């Protein structure tokens, strides 16, 4: 992730690709959550694409940690930060969720994960992260 820290008064913020600013605590929270499992999915419980992504990983034999942002008290802040990390301009940007991290690194949204699956690079990523044993 490319970001730089800025300080405004007592609030430290991160600027991602010069797009927008969000509290550094949110970035720390995302990094911590992304590191808790080999595969981490940031999702919304009512999103059909999010459901499909969870099914994809479970069907492959991975056990992703899933964070349903609409059910978390700080989910709105995380959602906004993830959108900015993805380079989306608005919360209603198509394809913004789910956001997948593998081995603590952001892979991206549904489009990027499916492209990796189709071109054969997803399984090696999962193996390298320890999400698959075979």
TrEMBL record:
Keywords: Cytoplasm, Redox-active center. GO terms for cellular component: cytoplasm; nucleus. Its main location: cytoplasm. This is Glutaredoxin domain-containing protein. The keyword Transcription does not apply. InterPro entries: GlrX-like_pln_2, Glutaredoxin, Thioredoxin-like_sf. NCBIfam families: GlrX-like_plant. One of its GO terms (biological process) is anther development. Residues 39-107 form the Glutaredoxin domain. Pfam families: Glutaredoxin (PF00462). PROSITE patterns: GLUTAREDOXIN_2 (PS51354). It is found in: Cytoplasm.
